[in-house]
Each structure stands twice: as structure tokens, then as C-alpha cells.
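Re: the 462-residue chain
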Amino acid sequence: MRSWYIYGYNILMNLKQASILVLDDDKDVLTAINLLLKKEVKEVITEKNPENLFALIKKHSFDLILLDMNFNASINTGNEGIYWLKRVKETRPSTCVIMITAYADIDLAIRSLKEGASDFVVKPWNNQKLIETIEDILAKKDGEKNWAKQQNYEELGLIGESEQMREIFSKIEKVAPTDANILILGENGTGKDLIAKAIHQRSVRASKSYIKVDVGALTESLFESELFGHKKGAFTDAKEDREGRFEAANSGTLFMDEIGNISLQQQAKLLTVLQNRLVTRLGTNNTIPLDIRLICATNLPLSELANENKFRKDLVYRINTVEIIVPPLRSRKSDISLLAKHFLKFYGNKYFKPDMQLSEKAILKLEEYNFPGNVRELQYIIERAVIMADSEMLQPNDLIFSPLETGSKILSEQESETKLSTIEKQTILKVIEKNNGNITKAAKELGITRTALYRRLSKYEI
């Protein structure tokens, strides 16, 4: 099998996962294709009568259909293959179709491409060529699907090609269609809120409400009112009835950010609502049934949430059916360049500087920084640089790291720069030697891109 690299995703197109239908009125053709494909694919089904096509489609989920151009049937369209192709595309538009044709039908086969066929093969076919054609079509289909997913992630600001981010994207695709409660763990500024929104947008509740609340910022007095709502006169400032965030999210998704910062008393009240799936507004005894998808996030590690002096373990189990751990930016340095260019494009357009670019040295400076403020800090660095830069090409001196994050460490870091450079140079040399000079493998082990490694080789004159 061949390995495909499409739109930033490594796709191993394995025919063993494919289900294929072969539709032809020639028994010899069906036998030949069945013998060829049965060892290559998960499932191959053959059928002589095109009238049985839709019963088969309804019963099976086919990745691809091999369809003959001509049958011994009385179809009034002038060509049976085109007729059945149109019917397939009307019923299952995402199903790939390869037309089987004789030399005399080449014009019709070309017409079938305009009608939605993925390709055509001519009788008698070359076995290896047929398998490669099927591989190519299914690989392209997977690539387009993954590209669409990636584009949607980029629109949300979730950007990355590192192994850590690919794992997160994969987990999102698995958990989003379910109603499982999700706990997102990660440092401040890593994009936990973006992941929560991506899960909602890929869920069956995507058309319903998405309500976000920073529960860690709610005082004891506001906690119940904000989350559960209140009736007019329930307390001094309750001048009208008000629904809480749980009600507002009913039939949709409720995202509770910084849940690790709420008190034990607040945790008890929250647990009661989650267990019973009922909410009661302050000032009333009427209960309201809840149907919500719950997503929570915290910057606390799971080990701290397991400390019952700080957090109820029964609540942890209630909110943590599946956990997603978001890595800090320093552990996925290969994504820094992608993120920086994304923010550069965004702020370049925002501040009427659409032609802004990052120099190689500027990218290297970003990749050498530890980013204690994570993606959020990188975003602010790029925004400031775009505003303050005198030229369209950003240079290292245009990138100012925030004293809010670096503080008093700046001076000591400057003093130890030479020592750190020496350590980095020695590490690069050891890893390259370990991988027998293979730059791709060395870059992967170092956790950086090949381009970033080449920049360091140039910097240290290696």
C-alpha cells in the first residue's frame, strides 16, 4: 500500500477497510473482479441485475461502486450506465463510482465523468492499474474529508500538524457525535475554549444553543442565580424572572470553564443538578428537566482534581466521561510557525497591512522561546508586532516577549543565552549522529520541523 500525505494529514489508504459493489451483467466480469479484489478489500459484493442496486445500497455502506456502462435492460435514457450513475448520485452523492466500459463507449464514459463518476476503466483492464485507480480515488476521498475538517478547525483558530494536535483532532471526531461529558485539561492560553466549541459544532446539537460560563469567576452569592436562574423577588436585586445558564443551554451544549476553581459548597450544588438532570430556580420549588451536553475545562492537572480536600471525586467522575489534555505550546514547537503565520494574516488584514511576512530569523526566535503564556501569548506578540512594525517583513527585533510572562527572568535568560545555545548545538549534533545524518528523523526526534532544524544548522554553522 502507498502512504499519502494530503493537506497536512498522513493518510494510509488501506484497501482492507473498503467495501465495494460490482454491478455488471457479465458473469465472467463479476468473477474476475471478485477474484482480484476479495483479498484486497474488506468486502466485495457482485450483482448482475441493476434493479437490485438500491436494495443493496440500503443494506450496505459502500465506499465505491464499479458500474457497467451497458446492461440488458430496457432503460429509456439511451444508456443504462449513465442512468444508474445518476440514480446513485441522487441517493448517495458521497459514494465513489468507477464506470466499466468497452472501447466503443469511450465518449459515453467521458460523459459519465461530467455526471459525477470518479473515473472509468476499459475492458479488458490491467489488474494492477485497476487496484491503483481504486486506491487513488479512495485516498482522494479521505483527503478531501480531512481537508474539510482541517479547514473548519482553522476557522476556529485550532491550528497544528504536530502529533499532539492530530491526536486531539482525532479524539474530537470520535467524541463529538456522542453525548459524553468532556473534561478539557490544559494550561491557560492553550485553547481549551476553542476545543469545546469544535466539539459542539461537530455534535448532533450543533444547531442548538452553545452557552459558555466561567464558573471560577462566580461568587458564592451569584453562583446559583447565574447557573440555575431565579424568580422575581427571590432576593433583593431579583427584579424579574431570569433563566440560568443551564436552562439557556437546554437541548444544546453548556461549557463550564475553570471548573477547578469552584468551592466545595458550589461543587455539591452542581453535582445535585447533574445527577438529577433537574434544575430549580431560586425562589421556586418547580423543577425544570435538563437535556444538555456538558463540557468542562480547567487549568488544574487531574492529580489536583483527585485531591478530595479541593474537589469532590464523585463530581470528577460525573464530568469526566472522556478527557482531552491540551499540550502547552512549548511541547509542540513544530506548530509555532503555522500559528504565527495564521495570526500574522489575521492581524495584517485587521490593521490594513495584508502583505506582512515573517523573516526566517523571526520564526527562529519564536521557536526558541518557551511561551509560558502559550498560544494566547503568541497571538499578542504577533498583534503587537503588526501594529508597531515599520516594514512588511517582521524581523526578530519586532517580536517583543511580554514582561508579564518573562518578568525578572529576562536578564538571567540573556546572560545564559550563550550557554543555552551551546547545549542546543550539542543536542542537535548528537541527535543527527544518532539518526545517521537523516534530517527528517532527527527533526522528528527533536520535536521540530525539518525547516526549523535547517535554520538551526545554519545558525550554528553545522
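The chain has 20 helices and 18 strands.
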